[in-house]
């Protein structure tokens, strides 16, 4: 790239982190990430999202157990790569859907809103880039989205304050980087310019 600036560098350097250290992020860092989330664009300026940050280890571990239970009777409904493998992997000893990150941010949104996923994805990318700028690692997790209608998972998310009518869009693992990830090569032929 011939043009260089802090944001472009941040975009290039961000990676999905899949191993974190145990060290918790600071309150200031969490505030900055959540603030970055709510400044994302949203369809019709809806801002109907909810970002629920969990930093309590017992809560995260319990949620992980419910995810493992949920996967037992979950049937992958399309051929998204890896769904079946993740379902099987989830039953193995030591499976942890949030990669044992010390902080998990769950993005949910109001129901029957066609931009629910798009708005939350915009916000999550803000979180990821903000995390990168603060020297933190992050990773997108699909599992809570896949299990959004699982009764056990939903009952617990309701207990945690996520409205029962909300759709669960995604979650983000956040923490200090325990192992660096390598950058996947960019595929050819994904840019088309008409001048
Ligand atoms: C919609 C979406 C879903 C994803 N789901 C997961 C996931 O469930 N678990 C995971 O480890 N990574 C997940 N990722 C991260 C991708 O695997 C990752 O972005 C991709 O391999 C490229 O690597 P990079 O983020 O380091 O550039 C997801 C990313 C997106 C955009």
From TrEMBL:
One GO process term, biological-process aspect: 2,4,6-trinitrotoluene catabolic process
Q: Is Protein biosynthesis set as a keyword in this record? A: no
| Record-level Gene Ontology MF annotations | oxidoreductase activity, acting on other nitrogenous compounds as donors, with NAD or NADP as acceptor
Concerning Gene3D superfamilies, the annotation shows:
NADH Oxidase (3.40.109.10)
Q: Which InterPro entries match?
A: Nitroreductase (IPR029479), Nitroreductase-like (IPR000415), Nitroreductase/BluB (IPR050627)
User: Does the keyword section mention NADP?
Assistant: no
Recite the UniProt keywords alphabetically.
NAD
Q: Name one GO cellular component term.
A: cytosol
> What PANTHER family does the database record attribute to this sequence?
NADPH NITROREDUCTASE, OXYGEN-INSENSITIVE NAD(P)H NITROREDUCTASE
Name of the protein in its database record: Nitroreductase family protein
The species is: Desulfosporosinus fructosivorans
């Amino acid at each position: 790239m011939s043009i260089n600036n802090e944001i472009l560098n941040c975009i290039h350097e961000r990676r999905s982190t899949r191993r974190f250290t145990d060290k918790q992020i600071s309150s200031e860092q969490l505030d900055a990430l959540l603030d970055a989330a709510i400044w994302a664009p949203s369809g019709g300026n809806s801002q109907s999202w909810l970002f629920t940050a969990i930093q309590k280890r017992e809560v995260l571990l319990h949620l992980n157990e419910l995810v493992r239970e949920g996967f037992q009777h979950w049937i992958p409904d399309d051929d998204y790569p890896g769904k079946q493998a993740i379902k099987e992997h989830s039953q193995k000893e030591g499976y942890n859907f949030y990669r044992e990150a010390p902080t998990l941010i769950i993005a949910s949104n109001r129901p029957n809103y066609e931009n629910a996923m798009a708005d939350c994805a915009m916000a999550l990318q803000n979180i990821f880039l903000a995390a990168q700028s603060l020297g933190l690692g992050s990773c997108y997790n699909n599992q809570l989205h896949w299990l959004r209608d699982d009764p056990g998972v939903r009952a617990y998310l309701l207990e945690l304050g996520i409205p029962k009518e909300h759709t669960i869009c995604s979650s983000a693992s956040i923490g200090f980087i325990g192992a660096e990830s390598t950058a996947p090569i960019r595929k050819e032929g994904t840019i088309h310019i008409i001048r």
